[in-house]
Amino acid sequence: MDARTDIKSTLPNMFEAVSKHLVGEISGADFEPATSLSATMCDAQFIASTVATVSEAIDPALPCPARALAVAPERDVKFDRFDAAEIFKKTPNVADLKPLGRHVAKDMFKAGDIPLLMKTLLDKDHVHGDCFTVTGRTIAENLKSANWNPRQDVRRSTDEPVTTTRGMVGLKRNFAPDMAAVKVAGMSNLKFTGADPCFGDISEIDAALGTLNVKLTDAEQAERKTKWRLSATNHTSDTLSKFAQQVGRAAGGAVPRPGGAYEKQCHVDI
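Request: output the structure for the sequence above.
Response:
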């Protein structure tokens, strides 16, 4: 905790303080950072903490649409970005976490961690409790001992969520026919119009309607596609090079092989 303010020393707050110092809004004497940066530091619910959350929840099989896109082809399950976007719409955000909320990943851990989050969603049928997990038990059985903690304010009930939908929406139209995803957590303005940095074309984003358009005619887009060439890469012999040669479309989970639909034998049965 900063000795001169009542602001919790978290990574996001530290970044904001540094930014304000750079633009002259505060002086060096106005804050005293008590947080140090290192690789993979992520105490808010950004990428690293999200991946860690998913990893921890693999045991009770927490459904994660982003990762499911990559896993689904392995079992020949038809699941794409459009399905993920529908899940985002139906799933309430019950964790009051940054960047949208007030708390960080450590607070979530102290409040009951992933089991409490899953139990909150399970009680309102947002999770299929009859799905089996790697423990040999169902999700509902794994979460049987998870109880609501009335002394915490990190998790909310599904009746009073932080937001009624997840902090991510799917965008589709002529600029993203296979759909793009955008985080809207903490944003009040869900519309944007401006020139893109590649060609200077005017793009329009409407996250409320789920659209992403570029102001080009179909003929103009078709002409550009005929001129497009894959950019050369500096990675010619390392792991990134091998991945680039095998990886599939992002819309299909970016898997490096065709998946279960093309398998001639189920490896589980060998």
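Residues 42 and 48 are 6 Å apart (CA to CA).
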